[in-house]
Amino acid sequence: MSSLPKCPQCSSEYTYEEGDNYVCPECAHEWPKVAAAEEVRVVRDSNGNVLQDGDTVTVIKDLKVKGASSVLKVGTKVKNIRIVEGDHDIDCKIDGFGAMQLKSEFVKKV
């Protein structure tokens, strides 16, 4: 049993080490041994300000809410956000709508 990781592109289990990289002999993909988790993800609002957990933001565009008959209006304040992985990178609770996820490109930091 090999303790080397599988190839992230083709899931081959035949990877090998070469210098500071892992190499897949099946698809020729190379990736660094250093864990990708060490990279810090920076989420920015529409103005380029860095967002962090616990920030308060304001919605800058009317947003249609899937499954609701009303829209999220411009100027709605969202308190105590959480930064999450994915396309919609802000997790929050909004009064009148409940828990939802927003894209950082549609908010600005207060």
Commentary on this structure:
The protein has a domain at 56-109: SH3 type barrels (Roll), CATH 2.30.30.40. 0% of the residues lie in helices and 34% in strands. It contains no helices and 13 strands. The protein has a three-stranded antiparallel sheet, with no helix packed on it. The model has no long low-confidence stretch (mean pLDDT 89).
Main beta sheet: strand number and arrangement? 3 strands, antiparallel
In spatial order, strands of the major sheet run: 1-2-3
CATH topology of the domain at 56-109: SH3 type barrels
Radius of gyration: 20 Å
Assign a percent range to the helix content. under 10%
Estimated share of beta-strand residues: 25-35%
Mean pLDDT: 89
Assembly annotation = single chain
Question: Which outline best applies?
Answer: elongated
Class by alpha and beta content = mainly beta
CATH H-level homologous superfamily name of the domain at 56-109: SH3 Domains
Organism: Zoogloea oleivorans
Protein name: Alkylphosphonate utilization protein
Domain Protein YjdM N-terminal: 3-32
Family: Belongs to the YjdM family.
